[in-house]
Amino acid sequence: MASFLRPHNWVPGPVGEELQVPDKDAKAMVGTEDTPGGKASPNPQNLRPSVFHSIKFFVFCHSLLQLAQLMMSGYLKSSISTVEKRFGLSSQTSGLLAAFNEVGNTALIVFVSYFGSRVHRPRLIGCGAILVTLAGVLMTVPHFISEPYRYDHTSPADMPQDFKASLCLLSTKAPASASSNSSCSSYTEVRHLAVVGIMFTAQTLLGVGGVPIQPFGISYIDDFAHNSNSPLYLGILFAVTMMGPGMSYGLGSLMLRLYVDIDRMPEGGINLTSKDPRWVGAWWLGFLISAGAVALAAIPYFFFPKEMPKEKQELRFRRKGLAVSDPPVSKGEDSSSEQSPAESLEKKDNLAQMAPDLTVIQFIKVFPRVLLRTLRHPIFLLVVLSQVCMSSTAAGMATFLPKFLERQFSITASYANLLIGCLTIPLAIVGIVVGGILVKRLRLGPMHCGSLCLLGALCCLILSTPLFFMGCSSHQIAGISHQPGTQPGLELFPGCMESCSCPSDDFNPVCDSSTRVEYITPCHAGCTSRVVQEVPDKSQVFYTNCSCVAGGGPVPAGSCDSACSHLVLPFMILISLGAALASVTHTPSFMLILRGVKKEDKTLAVGIQFMLMRVLAWMPSPVIHGSAIDTTCVYWAQSCGRRAVCRYYDHDLLRNRFIGLQFFFKIGSLACFALILAILRQQDKEERTKATIPNPGLQQQLLASEAKKEPEESRV
User: What is the pTM of this model?
Assistant: First the structure.
């Protein structure tokens, strides 16, 4: 889960090269901050200091922008099951859609280190934010170009949609089926493909627009903030940014309580509640709200300068607390500027140092060589593989956990998002913070960092084991075999409704609560009449005169509730605790990379790490999880002869395959951390051996003396 909260587009490197500003220009731009005691300079230009020349204001603006951007990036995952129902998508297709924003992002993120400080970074950040805004607006276009959502096959204008829908009509052919078949045309299929294509295009633009936002923002802060203030500013930035995914699930929880066509409600209203399996929430409204937030946050970036004077004053509360322990900044700067010839020769092979002097073609040619050199490091490779496994777990969980909770425990999409946003995300953030505190306070070295990672992964795996047993089997559905891949035919349905001529493509489930048997429509239960019972704030629909139900009914509309609904909170507590323990490994595993590779390769190693996590985890994992979920489907809806959304799953199979896939990735992460610890112990043993025999000459003398002693011992 820690990877789900990772900085989404962070690639360090030469983006953060320091830009020198002449002292004369700096004094003209800084204003009162640069004068001792905060007094204004007599220069008239300093009487009105611009807020856009303040790095503190930039940190504030960038925190808001990254918060809004990650809220939009994560919003689709909170409404994935709703989008599936609205447009008839399989879980595999929706998983590919959720992962598609990584395609454009991964393709361009490598070139960020090349362009670095050559561009006007604030303006490029603003342009990227505008592109993210356009992507969010484009995601809402399918809602406006599609027909109003019909949860049944009748659409008279003078009565509610399902007034006579799905009832048992004693006729040769059901009119609903004919109307359904007549609605299938080439135009309908073209419109469906256009809708799906628009959403994939929007996700690609969302990834491309997010490329410059975080890398350029971090480098800009690091360039112009005071050396002692920069870590504080970046900590504030990451703390605010980590709230983005949680806010996306909170926004999804609010929006999915509203009906999808809230802007074009049918006359007479609707007789659906959010617990009805046909309910579709206003998924598109969250994209509009997120896009508006990103657009507002992008405005200040077009007024920030390309260069601003480096902050010269340390924050006062930090100075008071750290004046004794912190060394003077000038000393650090002088020491960093003085390098030995050997260090300068080593840095010539560093791609990050070479990038500003290379052309694009030269950069592309040099990159694979440095990439292969970095991947040959065993610690780096194993840490990246372990983080790929953790990220695969997080990507699958973030995308399909809401849908899993809806199906397994019969809860609404809104409540599922609320649980994730209030439990899982906050505890994962706490896990990251705790991991950082442990590394800082205990001053953990590589060996202890590896041990902490192994312990966190092991505890996470142990907490995942009970999840296999926290659920119950699917309730009985009339006429549907609980074997994936089979489709029900009319001959499989009970004989009590043979005279009804029910349409095979209709879906309006009713539940016989006395026997816990669910019927796909009232027609399949043999119901011939419908009653609406008015209660405060809502109306409840019942069907009567049902020939397949003991006593003739009445039976309420909607699916049968799960017998395991009470297990949803214990299930989520275990999931959230596991996410927190997995997140504890985030900082120590990151430190293993920084302390394990060569000094000149650290910058590029971290960039390669995030690139590989995108390519190997965040792109394929949602598709893999979606494909696994599709294999557990027992009844597919049909739309114009093609397979659309899945109506019913085998709950036991769904739980075992979804949790089993998570378990598999967690075992992979645990195995990688175990190998890392074994290698670190071997390296530590070798270093101790070298420490006892410091120079080769002494070692040879000792070996020679031992060789002379051997004959004497043999004689004795």
Answer: 0.79
